[in-house]
Amino acid sequence: MTDTNIWENLSLSEDNSQTAYKLLIGQKDNFAEKTNSELLMIIESNEVASYNDSKRRMHVYSLFVQVPSLGNFRKKILYVAEFFDVGRFPVDIYCDIDDTVCVNVKEEDFLNVIKEILSKDSVKRVIENLFRQSIEAKKMATNKN
């Protein structure tokens, strides 16, 4: 009987390439520090099919701002679509606040594109408003005691 290695076609290596998810998660601490932890950045990952092609699968990473002092209220800011048939990059980015769409975003441009979206007045207003509401909710809770 011959010993057959059923794993010989498996190519394992330490892959250090970034994913959109890893790049976003890397920004969580920066956001918490900027907002004095009044607001949190939450990333959810889901596997879905394209709305116009059910055979085209993708990971969707949704970025939310969460407000602990408002019962963990969350507001979706944007999402990133990473397509199975393409690989990790390029990705598409969609901003829920102003309907901005950025397609075919390369890894080296990813954080700059996210920064541009987050720098838009409409997006900043939403985040700044959530921050003010959080501060106000804490003041009201303190005054009740």
Q: What structural class do the secondary elements suggest?
A: alpha+beta
- Uncertain runs: none
Strand order of the largest sheet: 1-2-3-4-5
Average pLDDT over all residues? 91
Number of strands: 5
SSE string: HHEEEEEHH
Strand content: 25-35%
Question: What is the general shape?
Answer: elongated
Number of helices, where a helix is a run of at least 4 consecutive DSSP H or I residues = 4
Instruction: State the major sheet.
Output: 5 strands, antiparallel
Q: Tell me the number of structural domains.
A: 1
Helix content, binned percent? 25-40%
**How far is the first residue's CA from the last residue's CA?**
79 Å
Specify Rg, calculated over alpha carbons. Answer: 20 Å
Please name the defining characteristics of this protein:
single chain, alpha+beta, 145 residues, 5 strands
Describe the model.
The protein is of the alpha+beta class and about 140 residues long. It has one domain (about 20-145). The protein is about 35% helix and about 30% strand. The chain has helices at about 20-25, 30-35, 105-120, 120-145, and strands at about 40-50, 55-65, 75-85, 90-95, 100-105. Strands 1-2-3-4-5 form a five-stranded antiparallel β-sheet. The termini are far apart.
Write the layout of secondary structure elements.
Blueprint: H1 20-25, H2 28-34, E1 40-49, E2 57-67, E3 73-83, E4 91-95, E5 101-105, H3 107-118, H4 121-144
Antiparallel strand pairs: 1-2, 2-3, 3-4, 4-5
